Structures are given as C-alpha cells and as structure tokens.
Sequence to fold (363 residues):
Amino acid sequence: MTHTRQTAPGSTPTGVDGEGLDARLVVQRGSFRLDVALTVAPGEVVALLGPNGAGKTTALRALAGLVPVSGGGVCLDGAALDRTPPESRPVGVVFQDYLLFPHLTALDNVAFGPRCHGASKAKAREIAAGWLDRMGLADHAGAKPRRLSGGQAQRVALARALATRPRLLLLDEPLAALDARTRLEVRAELRRHLAEFEAVAVLVTHDPLDAMVLADRLVVVESGRVVQEGTPSEIARRPRTDYIAQLVGLNLYRGTAGGHTVRLEAGPAITTTEELSGPVFVAFPPGAVTLFRDRPSGASARNLWRCEVAGLETHGDQIRADLTGELSLAADLTAVAAAELGLQPGATVWATVKATQTHAYPA
Ligand SMILES: Nc1ncnc2c1ncn2[C@@H]1O[C@H](COP(=O)(O)OP(=O)(O)OP(=O)(O)O)[C@@H](O)[C@H]1O
Fold:
C-alpha cells in the first residue's frame, strides 16, 4: 500500500472539529437487520467488504438517504443529515451500472449535478468540461452514453459524482460491470482520483482486490454486522472469520492456547512458535502444508494429521486439496506432486505443517 492519507495512529478517525463521517446505520428490511457503525476521516477511503447479502449496499443507500434508518444517524462534517433529503445531501454516488441519463451527452450528464446545485447552465457546463478533461474524456463530451465504452461511461459517472464537490463520495461496486482488462485500467485511474479526493469516500465491493487496491481501511460486514476492520495488511495477517480467511487464502482455526500448544475447539492441537494463553486464532497458508501417502516414519507427532481428500481443484498453477478428517484444511501442491501421491477424492493422506509456518494471535 502506498496510500499516505492514513489517520494518525491512535487518533479518532473524525477530526476534533467533527470533520468527516460519523454514522451508525440501523436498518430493518423484512427479517434482515443492519446495524453498522462507520467513522471515516476526510481524505480516507473506506471499503465495505462482505459476502452477498451482507448489507453493504443497504448501508451505502442509507448513507445516501435512499433507505430510511430506523435507528442511529448520519453526521457529516459535524452536521446531522437525517432530515436532509437525498438530493440536498453533499453526497456523490457512483453505482455499478453507472445510471447515466441516456438522452444527455456526457457533458450534460456531468453538468447535471452542478446545475441542480444552483450553477448557471454556462457555469455548469464549464465545470463539467473541466472534469471530463481531467478524466481524459474531453473528446467525448458530445457523445451520448450508448456511444461510450464501459470504462468511459464509468469515468463519466465518476466525473458526474465529483462535479458537485461532494463531502461524501459513495461508490457501489464501481468496477463490477467492466471486463477484466478495462477493470484493471479503471481501477488504477479510480485509485488516482480517490487519492486526490479530499473528502470522505466509502466504497462497496465483494472483490478483495478492489478493496485492497482502492481503500485505506477495510470494514468487513457479514450478516448486517461489522466483523472486522483495519488496514488491508492487518486484515490479511489476522483474519477473524472464515469468510475473511478464505478471502485472503488461509486456513483458520479457533482454540485455546497454553504455551506453544493450541487446543482447537473441535479437533486436535496445533503447535505454534508463539507462546500465548487463552482464546486464540491459529492460521497457516495452504502452501505450508506437506502431504504424505503413508504416515512419515520418524516424524514427530506434532502437527501431523490423518486426513481424507474431499475434493481437488486447480488454483493458479497449483492443485488445491480440500482435506477433512482429524483436521479440515486446504493444502496446495504442484500437479506433479498430486500425481505422485495419487491424490483423488476419498484417498487417505497425512498432512503436516511446521510450527514456524503457523501464526497464532489472540481471539
Ligand atoms: N427492498 C428490500 N426489501 C427487503 N429486503 C431487502 C431489500 N433489499 C435487500 N434486502 C435484503 O437485505 C439484505 C442485504 O442486502 P444488500 O443488497 O444490502 O447486501 P449486499 O451486501 O450489498 O449484497 P450484494 O453483494 O449481493 O449486493 C439481503 O438479505 C437482502 O435480501
């Protein structure tokens, strides 16, 4: 990460003068309940990350005032927004499908915001032209949305959101509708624009790469609740739920530590290098697992488990084995190693991990 706009360690994300976003969003939608607190400093980019149906979009829409909150409230730069209708909030929104006005040119799509905020037609167009220029779209100012590529349309949508100089920029899966190559380009550009943006930006995504590249801080939401928040590297190093562990590609267990041994809640013990006591997590990458066809003779019994192959899939240039048995785990190995071991669903294998390859941390 090369972002430099981090909040100073130990300081509260909003400034002493209440700058930035301070929100608690309680939303009831049928049987689904969202209850999320969100504090973001000016200049900070926060990504709401989570599985389908976690409540990310609901949270974003509640910030925009498009979904009523049944509890909590939204405070932006010290002012409560709860009684402010969506169109009067200093908020810019970019949706995954852009929602540009099809009958307006790119220029007039971008001019729409400033015009709504009271700028004259000429002034609004001047502002819009400036933004299109910044986005590298000056040559497409007169084009209608259907003549724009996905990447260009996404840039127009971003220009439209930024043209009103919002104090809160909301982006809902901004790259989801783009093909892989365009996505790469637009992601890099978006990152540049977000780095220049001096107000609060909140991004919703279920793509960990988008989140890690674009955001200073991740807020992981599962079933309507925040389950973990921190910088991308903090979260990648110390995942606290199965969803996050899978996202960052780690085997994760919960147990109770006593010295170098962690007794798992359901299963065997794992020997670690860290010396801890009480409730802990233990994590190790699938690449740290070594598999044997027969019980390795002379091997210590530490971190050695008898398992069965439940499934196999290719994972990049590796084979990932899904193992169950004494311990459930994922193991990565080369195609050659998989062939030599005769790995196939139902086969019995012995799995081992060195204590130095595990990482234990308080739960
Ligand atoms: N209009 C609605 N009425 C009732 N329930 C809804 C409505 N819209 C969404 N929900 C429910 O709210 C929950 C959260 O949905 P939301 O779209 O916020 O999740 P999400 O994290 O953005 O998911 P995704 O990544 O799939 O977009 C889901 O369980 C969904 O079924």
